[in-house]
Structure formats: C-alpha cells, structure tokens
Amino acid sequence: MKRKNYNKIDRLLELPKEVCSNVPKIIITGFDEMVIENFKGILEYEEFFVKISTHIGLININGYGLNLENMTDDDIKVKGKIESLEMERTVDES
10 Å Cβ neighbour count for 31? Predict the structure, then answer.
C-alpha cells in the first residue's frame, strides 16, 4: 500500500520515473557514446561487446573499441563505435 502512495506523490510532483525508481535511463549521443543510469553491474566487458545488468533486465552493446568511462555507483558511460543495442527484460515492471 505504501508503494502506491509514493507513486501518487511522484506523479503529483511530476518526478521522472528514473529518479523515483530503479528503472534504467539510457542516453545515446550519436553512435559513439552512451550513458546508462541506474545500472546494477557489468556482467561482460570486451572491446567489441558489453553486457550490463539493470534492476529490470540486461543491456547488450555491440561495437568496436568500446571503453567504459566515468563509472559511478549510479551511472556508466560507454564510448566507442556503437553498432547495436539490445535490451532484454528479466523482470516484469508493471
């Protein structure tokens, strides 16, 4: 019941969903840079492939010369030649 009250307050204050929950936010700048907010961990990291875990699923990034930069507890920046992005939902977020 408490969670519903928080959702009503969040909506009333017009707070973005990613601020009030663990839902990931992905910001893509061209094909060379991506920032993922609200991530849990790095599962796999190669120069051509990065797999990142979030609270609701997995994010797979394919490309060339991929580097992880500016990591904090909440967000991570991936730079390089990004070819594709795949998201795999592992938790039903209703």
Answer: 12
